[in-house]
Amino acid sequence: MTTASERAPEELLTVPQVMDRLQLGRSAVYDLLRTRQLASITLGRARRIPSHSLTDFIRTRLEQEAA
């Protein structure tokens, strides 16, 4: 069993990083965040997207496309 201190830290992505990875524009990424299709956290005034949220979003979209 792994403890919290043994787990790798969660990578937090910026909106521009998500834009690059998804090849989408800024407004499209913010639409995904606004509609909660893509989970995020706010740190002060900065919006960050956990990398696992991006992975989950892509996996879900692939499953929808395959159905």
What does this structure look like?
It is built from three helices and three strands. With 67 residues, it is α+β, with helices and mostly antiparallel strands. The chain has one domain. The protein has a three-stranded antiparallel sheet. A hairpin with a 2-residue loop joins strand 2 (41-43) and strand 3.
**Strand segment tally:** 3
Total helices: the number is: 3
Radius of gyration: 13 Å
Mean pLDDT: 91
N-to-C SSE series? EHHEEH
Number of domains: 1
Q: Profile the largest sheet.
A: 3 strands, antiparallel
Helical residue percent band: 40-55%
Output the structural class. Answer: alpha+beta
Low-confidence stretches: none
Strand content: 5-15%
Shape: globular
Quote the distance from N terminus to C terminus: 36 Å
Order of strands, main sheet, comes to 1-3-2
Give the structure's gist in a few sentences.
This protein is α+β, with helices and mostly antiparallel strands and 67 residues long. It has helices at 15-22, 26-34, 51-66; strands at residues 12-13, 41-43, 46-50.
Topology record:
Layout: E1 12-13, H1 15-22, H2 26-34, E2 41-43, E3 46-50, H3 51-66
Antiparallel strand pairs: 1-3, 2-3
Key terms:
3-stranded antiparallel beta sheet; HTH_17; DNA binding; 3 helices; DNA-binding protein; 49% helix; 67 residues; alpha+beta; DNA-binding
